[in-house]
Amino acid sequence: MSIESTLRQRSGDKCELCGATHDLQPFAVAPHTQATVDHGALLCETCRTQVEDADQMDVNHWRCLNDSMWSQEPPVQVLAWRQLTRLARSEGWAQDLLDMMYMEEETKLWAETGMENDGKKHVDCHGAPLAKGDTVTIIKDLPVKGSSMVVKIGTMVRNISLAQDDPELFSGKVEGQSMWLRCEFCRKK
């Protein structure tokens, strides 16, 4: 039996968060990248879009969490907890639901792990978003820890990479050496 058919059977052919019956697809719950029975949920297009992009969140859509937060399935609990946590920043009802919600310690750790950098993006000193491959200019002299090297103001760093787990760091080559630098000390070209 495929993962999708197993999830459909588990959910009764409904979105495991809102109960919708259309546009259903398996969704891998971060940090997992493959949807499995243990690490995935069956979600509708509306829920998938809003889980992946908090900027598109429709607050009223998520009132459905009042029911789905009680699911016995850990991936569904994780998704419900994460959405309620995002909503609790501005919605009192979401905080009330969070206060009532119970999860096993291991499930709660999974939920928290996926929220570490929630909503935080890599941005330069002026708030411009940074992307992998960008070129940036260093805006102040930066001494390199553990060496006598100083990355001078005006140094260009090409083809940067972004830290996966820390939105304040990027990496690039300076004078032939790879190093991690703080986003607040660069300006995007």
UniProtKB/TrEMBL annotation:
Alphabetized InterPro entries for the sequence: PhnaA_N_proteobac (IPR013991), YjdM_C (IPR013988)
Superkingdom of origin organism: Bacteria
Sections of the chain in a coiled coil: none
SUPFAM superfamilies given in the database record: Prokaryotic SH3-related domain
A Pfam family recorded for this sequence: YjdM
Domain PhnA protein N-terminal proteobacterial: 6-52
Protein name (database record): PhnA protein N-terminal proteobacterial domain-containing protein
Organism: Vibrio ezurae NBRC 102218
Lineage, broadest ranks: Bacteria, Pseudomonadati, Pseudomonadota, Gammaproteobacteria, Vibrionales
